[in-house]
Each structure stands twice: as C-alpha cells, then as structure tokens.
Specification:
Layout: E1 4-7, E2 14-17, H1 27-40, E3 43-45, H2 52-59
Parallel strand pairs: 2-3
Antiparallel strand pairs: 1-2
C-alpha cells in the first residue's frame, strides 16, 4: 500500500503516514517518498524512533550518503550522523550543515530528541 501524504501548509511540508521506517522499503514506497519530498520540500514522520544506524539506512533511501561534516566528528559508530544539540555541541537551534562543501547533500534527515513547545 502506498504511503499517505498529507499537506501541512500552503507552500511547504507534508506529513507521511503508512511507512514502516524499520523495514526495507519497496520501490513504490521510495518513489512516493522522493516525489513527496520534491513536491513539498520537507516531509515529516510522526512518532518515529530511529537510532543512528536507522537514520543512515532511511537517509540512504534518498541517495548516496555524504560524511556528516568535514571538520566535526560524526556521532559514535557512524560516518554520516552529526549530533547537533545544545548539550553536547555549541548548537542551540537547528541550522543547515555542510552547505559550504563543493557537493552539498541533497537533503538532511533530522531527528528531534526533545522538542520545546514553549508551553
């Protein structure tokens, strides 16, 4: 069954449902996810818990992976995951990484470990 794609805003973003990110995807699922990303510029999977290896695996559905950062070490046990948080690095808000390299990544897969909703 193809994933369900629901537009989130008038211009950018869609929520994806019906995809098991822990299982190997079929070609139709990967094609649908890539099309959704191209159309909506950002896709969101709610209630997902992926470890670093899972993040690398899912990111690989979208193409060849790049190194996490040319000057900052990748997360332990990975070559493609960069930990960006206010407790273990100097980042206190999200920012794009490695956009300065000759061939920047096509996309970034972000996993929120904690979200401050301000309430």
């Amino acid at each position: 069954m193809p994933p369900s794609i629901r537009k989130l805003t008038a211009r950018t973003g869609a929520a994806v449902e019906g995809v098991d990110l822990t299982a190997p995807p079929d070609l139709d699922t990967v094609t649908a996810l890539r099309a959704a990303l191209n159309e909506h510029k950002a896709i969101v999977f709610d209630d997902v818990r992926l470890d670093n290896a899972g993040q690398e695996r899912v990111a690989g559905w979208f193409g060849e992976l790049t190194t996490a950062h040319p000057n900052v070490p990748a997360a332990d046990g990975t070559t493609n995951v960069l930990a960006v948080d206010s407790e273990t690095s100097k980042a206190d808000e999200w920012h794009a990484d490695v956009t300065f390299v000759v061939n920047p990544p096509q996309l970034e897969l972000l996993a929120a470990a904690a979200v401050d909703t301000g309430s």
